[in-house]
Specification:
- With 254 residues, the protein is an alpha/beta fold.
- It is built from 9 helices and 17 strands.
- The protein has helices at 26-30, 47-54, 124-128, 131-141, 166-174, 178-183, 186-191, 203-213, 238-241; strands at residues 5-6, 9-15, 18-24, 34-38, 59-61, 63-64, 71-73, 83-84, 87-89, 95-101, 105-111, 117-122, 149-153, 163-164, 199-200, 221-224, 247-252.
- The strands form 4 sheets. Strands 1-16-13-11-12-9-7 form a 7-stranded mixed sheet.
- Strand 2 (9-15) and strand 3 (18-24) form a beta hairpin.
- The mean pLDDT is 90.
Length: 254
């Protein structure tokens, strides 16, 4: 199954004589959505300052991420305590939606007609819990059309660097729908019968499959070819260094 792995353009934001690097999705740029997949340089600056230089007079929507399938609206994040969730959907136009990631996927969503946007933090557990399905349902409930929904899967760990044991792999496939199993290459299905560990799992591929299962057109999906594990210069990676540090990702409706 062909995935739209693409070259995401690298750009910089200058703040106080320092450059903060981030990547842009071609499909979101084409449709004029402000967004960015930041590198590790974003970890040493206050988010409020970063946000101010990206999009003035916007309210930052930030979550306490817990590897769930919970999605909240941006206005719910404006209290004194961070809301526990892994997805945020804008309900006002003056919002910047933020998620932080290392090896997990930062996935940004946008409706090019209604100008709705959303962001999710999605790893293996997010795929198992169907956070993508939950989010697409909200877009449809808002009257969005599948032809108008754009998706950008940002830098995250690649298949060859995401190795799991047999029990974890078995559980992942048990949580996977029938349609997704049909989409698996035969050699991956055979892995389930083997009694060994260190199986590679392609998180980006399964996110892509789940998007197709929700009727998002292939042409509306961008997938970054960048691997956080391999790109030590640009990204933090839990699997590589066990660092608790993360990089920021954001999208705004305007």
């Amino acid at each position: 199954m062909a995935q739209n792995q693409k070259f995401f353009k690298k750009t910089e934001l200058a703040i106080k004589n320092k450059n903060y690097k981030y990547y842009l999705s071609p499909i979101l740029v084409k449709n004029n959505f402000k967004h960015g997949f930041f590198t590790k340089t974003s970890s040493d600056i206050k988010l409020s300052l970063l946000s101010k230089h990206l999009n003035k007079n916007k309210k930052d929507c930030v979550l306490n991420q817990i590897h769930s399938n919970k999605i909240v609206f941006g206005s719910k994040t404006q209290g004194n305590e961070k809301v526990e969730a892994d997805g945020v959907f804008n309900d006002k136009h003056n919002q910047n939606l933020w998620i932080y990631t290392a090896d997990c996927m930062p996935i940004l969503f946008a409706d090019k007609r209604k100008r709705c946007v959303a962001a999710i933090h999605c790893g293996r557990r997010g795929l198992e819990k169907k956070i993508i399905k939950n989010l697409i349902k909200i877009f449809y409930e808002k009257g969005c059309s599948k032809e108008d929904i754009l998706v950008a899967i940002g830098p995250s760990i690649s298949k060859k660097n995401y190795l799991i044991d047999n029990k974890t792999l078995q559980n992942f496939y048990n949580q996977t729908s029938h349609k997704e199993l049909i989409s698996c290459p035969a050699d991956e299905s055979i892995l389930l019968k083997l009694k060994k560990d260190d199986f590679p799992l392609n998180l980006k591929k399964y996110a892509y499959i789940q998007l197709l299962n929700e009727n998002i057109p292939n042409s509306n999906i961008d997938i970054s070819n960048l691997c956080t594990f391999q790109s030590d210069y640009d990204f933090y990676s839990w699997r590589r260094s066990k660092s608790p540090l993360r990089q920021w990702n954001f999208i705004s409706p305007s």
